[in-house]
Design a protein that fits this description.
The chain has nine helices and no strands. By secondary structure, the chain is an all-alpha fold.
Length: about 200
């Protein structure tokens, strides 16, 4: 059992190294040698954990995807008292857009994987699964708002969730490119949420 725990910890350590390299220097900087150096393990250790570079990249993407999803879910679970659906929706979208300084590395990594997706088959599958889960979460929040009568019942929660997720995703790019500040991006998100309440 201890060896299994050590193996998983090493895989996570390598995934974090992959993410750090991508955020610092782009996807091209991810070689087995550089990952081993960044993770402070041997190349043999990397190769024992992952048979191919693609396996390693996929695991890193799944790791980032899980962290993004968990942050959004934790934001909802952390509410010590019942909160308005609009507040939960605003906070969740802000988490998904990866706008704060602490999320910048994840934002760089996420966009690097998105840009690489057309070149493969397995990466797009992970991205689709992640986007699907995030979309379902936003649908749930909108329907919660409809149940509490904050959001008009006639609105199509599925379609509105498509729009909100696309806006949040696009704002990630705009902030990283310097087109918007995080504060402006948050204001854009809030306007979209406010529009739902009308």
């Amino acid at each position: 059992m201890p060896r299994q725990v050590d193996y998983e910890e090493r895989r996570l350590r390598i995934a974090e190294a992959v993410c750090a390299l991508i955020a610092r220097s782009g996807m091209e900087a991810v070689s087995l040698r550089d990952v081993a150096t960044e993770a402070d393990v041997s190349m043999g250790a990397v190769q024992r954990c992952f048979h191919t570079k693609e396996d390693m990249l996929l695991f890193a993407l799944e790791h980032v995807s899980q962290r993004v999803s968990e942050r959004a879910a934790q934001r909802i679970a952390a509410a010590s008292t019942p909160q308005a659906a609009s507040t939960l929706l605003s906070h969740t979208l802000a988490e998904l857009a990866l706008l704060d300084e602490a999320s910048k590395t994840q934002a760089h990594v996420w966009l690097a994987f998105v840009s690489r997706a057309p070149a493969g088959e397995r990466l797009p599958a992970v991205l689709r699964d992640t986007y699907g889960k995030l979309h379902d979460l936003i649908v749930w929040l909108i329907r919660y708002g409809q149940d509490t009568q904050e959001i008009p019942e006639h609105l199509d929660a599925v379609q509105e969730a498509h729009t909100l997720l696309a806006v949040a995703d696009g704002l990630t790019v705009h902030v990283l490119a310097g087109h918007h500040s995080p504060e402006v991006a948050l204001a854009v998100l809030q306007r979209h949420v406010d529009h739902l309440l009308q």
